[in-house]
Specification:
By secondary structure, this protein is mainly α. It folds into 2 domains: 17-182, no CATH class; 185-324, no CATH class. It is 79% helix and 0% strand. It is built from 13 helices and no strands. It has helices at 3-13, 20-53, 56-59, 74-100, 104-130, 143-179, 186-220, 226-252, 255-280, 294-320, 326-350, 352-360, 362-368. The longest helix has 37 residues, at 143-179. The model is unreliable at 1-13, 55-72 and 357-374 (pLDDT under 50).
């Protein structure tokens, strides 16, 4: 096979789209991931060095309140920076899946998620430099750390603007392709739209549920506290299992499982409201366990609550659409698409020249593929 054909084949195997806007979207996501991971990795290393080689006068340990019994721990600040790295990997997954499957809803979700990362970076900056707590004052005299924090926010802000502009272009490019697999049936198109919305919401739920639980367990709870082990041993794995069941119930249209999902999601806000109240009511200022984590946890609780409410609504909409033929239509489309790819592979193996032409026109063939529902 000629070199051009081999390159196209590799791109298709990696699900790299041919659209210039889609490739720009992925390119910016990759650049942002590289920049943020480099910055945060250096920040983590510098934080470790601060604790290893720093002195009170050099790093500002003396700003810690003598009346507060909380100790400055290296792990606490490293968790914040590690969250940026994990969030960037999750964002890259969202972007790649979105453009690979021409999912305009997930493209918009990825853009909003990037804005949330910007808000998280802003919270970190205000906690360290604008209104620093006693223990966060450790970074007050470190000019390089301040510059890195500002750089992180600038990167997120620029990429958010770029994602927003590209999202509009991708919506124009992929908008009609998203639902073409369902023909002209408006009812199925609406059902498929809510199907895609719920899938995207569940992915976001997985990230925010786990991220909140990990921060709570590592920053606030103590080894001697039974709630720590409940959070690590029950809440985190339980949330993952529950959300996996949600994906499965949506895919196979299991009504009883979906009802259980809706009920559990509907009850879960009570837990997050309880945590929100506990963080702000009857707190002993001399031993405040939420001294440096209150803003971060509040941010995650608010976002998670909003996601839960929207997920419940989307789950109800999807439940009402079970049995109208959406599952069969999607399966039929996937079967036809797989058969089309198999035919192209056979054609390419029989004639390399024809295979190269088929590879170059792969996107065009996918655009013209249609079928009618029975």
């Amino acid at each position: 096979m000629p070199a051009l054909g081999r390159r196209r084949l590799r791109l298709r195997c990696c699900s790299v789209p041919k659209s210039i806007w889609a490739r720009l979207f992925i390119g910016i996501a990759l650049l942002e991931v590289f920049a943020i991971i480099c910055i945060e990795s250096y920040v983590i290393k510098r934080t470790a060095n601060i604790y290893k080689y720093g002195t009170e006068s050099q790093w500002g340990f003396g700003m810690q309140s003598l009346t507060n019994k909380m100790t400055i721990t290296q792990q606490s600040f490293i968790v914040y920076d590690a969250m940026f790295i994990v969030a960037q990997l999750f964002l890259l997954m969202l972007c790649w899946e979105a453009v690979a499957h021409k999912n305009t809803i997930q493209i918009i979700a990825a853009t909003l998620f990037n804005v949330m990362c910007l808000a998280y970076a802003l919270i970190q900056y205000t906690t360290f430099y604008v209104h620093p707590s006693a223990s966060a004052g450790i970074f007050q005299k470190d000019h390089d750390m301040r510059v890195l924090s500002i750089t992180t926010m600038v990167v997120y802000a620029l990429c958010s603007v770029a994602f927003a502009l590209l999202s509009w272009e991708l919506y124009q490019t992929f908008g009609w392709k998203t639902y073409k697999k369902l023909g002209a049936d408006l009812r199925l198109r609406r059902a498929y739209k809510w199907h895609q919305i719920l899938l995207t919401l569940l992915k976001l739920d997985v990230f925010f549920f786990i991220a909140y639980s990990v921060q709570l367990a590592t920053l606030v709870l103590r080894v001697s506290d039974p709630e720590t082990w409940v959070q690590i041993g029950v809440v985190i794995p339980g949330s993952v299992v529950f959300l996996v069941l949600s994906f499965w119930a949506l895919k196979v249209e299991k009504k009883r499982v979906m009802v259980a999902v809706i009920v559990c999601l509907g009850l879960s806000p009570a837990y997050f409201i309880y945590r929100l109240v506990r963080m702000n009511v009857n707190i002993n200022k001399a031993s405040d366990p939420f001294l440096d984590s209150r803003k971060y946890l509040t941010f995650f609780i608010v976002i998670t609550l909003v996601l839960i409410l929207v997920t419940v609504y989307a789950s109800i909409r999807c439940y009402r659409n079970f049995g109208i033929g959406l599952k069969e239509a999607i399966a039929d489309y996937e079967a036809r698409k797989a058969q089309m790819k198999a035919n192209k592979a056979l054609e390419a193996s029989a004639s390399p020249d024809k295979g190269q032409i088929a590879s170059l026109n792969y996107e065009c063939a996918d655009v013209h593929e249609r079928f009618e529902l029975d």
